From TrEMBL:
The keyword 4Fe-4S does not apply. SUPFAM superfamilies: beta-lactamase/transpeptidase-like. Residues 17-362 form the Beta-lactamase-related domain. It comes from Nocardia stercoris. This is Class A beta-lactamase-related serine hydrolase.
Amino acid sequence: MSGRVHGQVDRAFRAVREVFEADFANGQNVGAAVAVFVDGRAVVDLWGGAADARTGRPWVHDTPAITFSCTKAVTATAALAVAHETGVDWEAPVTNWWPEYGAAGKGATVLADLLTHSAGLPVLEQPATVEQAADPAAMAALLARQRPLWQPGTEHGYHALTFGWLVGEFVRRRTDSTVGEFVRRRFGDDLWIGAPPEVIARAARVGFPPAAERAWTDSTATDAAVLRLAQAYQDPDSLLMRGSTNPMASANKPEVLAGGWPASGLVTTARGLARFYRDLVAGTLLPPSILREAVREQVRGPDAVLVQESAFGLGYMLPAQNFVLPAAARPTAFGHPGAGGALGLGDLTHRVAIAFVPNLRRDWLSGDRRAYDLVRAVYDAL
């Protein structure tokens, strides 16, 4: 399938197209899309390649794809909107709205702990099925019974999957809606956390590069923090692997795409994800004062799960060792990357919104720079 790129780009941002085209030419992309808004105006809207490498089905202007942990920023925004509208203080105890959560020493946990990956529940201790994962009430009940691995609020560690069921329970209990229902109703009808059959049928199929291209390079392995992360990925008993593989499921399975996992299940287009950040930056999804507080650094330092530095606002990831951004973006950008290369990013100072959505799951430990180079080209053009 040809990697020909389609779409439009403002002349000032033509370098973004050049970077995007180069990643098809050098085999870094199979299918992908990138979209950028500046001051609310679309300046990049590009797509290309194959949505399904097996059949050659092309990636078209409205091809949706799973964006993995890019979902977390959308779920966090839903929770922040609900907290604002219902008058819930994110420093108030979770038990005020979820009494059962106080079990097993979690009574002092506050909503901010859930949003900053500080709750101490990065893994599901009980094996869960894909069917259970589609039932937010069942997942919340499992987590409510668990004992935290650390005293909530005293340290942080990436809650790869549990973040969604914990934060999502706040949305569910205060609105009688799932996160997916709330997001589509309030943020955009092309943001599917729980995709319907017609969307699943059009979705890009996720693939992996050859095994040799997934090996960690010598240059990255010399960095002690990266080496620790590489070792965690290779250890099935690490918190990282235990937290990201229960339930174990393929992102190409219809039941997973339909399941509405609120930490990792967002199916959307690059245009849809960039529009979400455009509207967020513009102040239409959250009051500007709330967003400014939410993107302020709440935690930074060694991550108990990722075993390197991470930093979070209230649900939004901030630039750190595990979220590497070009120098121009680091002081003001926020958002969330997704497994294998996806990215959603906003910037209040520069009034920028960026989304990159690929279907070839590369890993930055293997030198994946696709999103990084696109972001750099955007900031160079500002």
